Amino acid sequence: MITINGKNVREEIIRILETHPEGVTVQALSDNIGVSRHTIIKYVFELKGSGVLYRRRVGSATLHYLRSLLAKFNKNFEDITYEAH
Questions:
Q1: In the chain, where the domains are located
Q2: Architecture in CATH for domain 9-72
Q3: Which letter, b or e, does each residue of 59-71 get, where b requires 16 or more Cβ atoms within 10 Å of its Cβ?
């Protein structure tokens, strides 16, 4: 288990996304967890690659969701193709 400032970043991201079915930006995750955006992005792509997380562009923002919540709320978004940081 990798921790930063005493926190397991991966678990913190999942915990935050569980309470925000409307989606969360990288900046909001960074602010809530207290680690850099670059660290959040590393874990976001790890979670996306493992199928846990879903990313979607909404205007100029990229929102992040837990796939399990999308299924619960019967949402069917297409994966975004543009991966901007």
A1: 9-72
A2: Orthogonal Bundle (1.10)
A3: eeebbbbbbebbe
Asked if residues 16 and 1 have their Cβ atoms less than 8 Å apart, the reply is: no
Beta bridge partners of 57: 62
| Per-residue pLDDT tens digits of the chain, which is 85 residues long | 566 666 699 999 999 999 998 899 999 999 999 999 999 999 999 999 999 999 999 899 999 999 887 666 655 555 444 444 4
pTM, entire model: 0.77
Identify the residue whose tokens are 């205007």: 59
The answer to whether the CB of 17 falls within 8 A of the CB of 69 is: yes
- Nearest Cα to 85, choosing from 30, 34, 32? 30
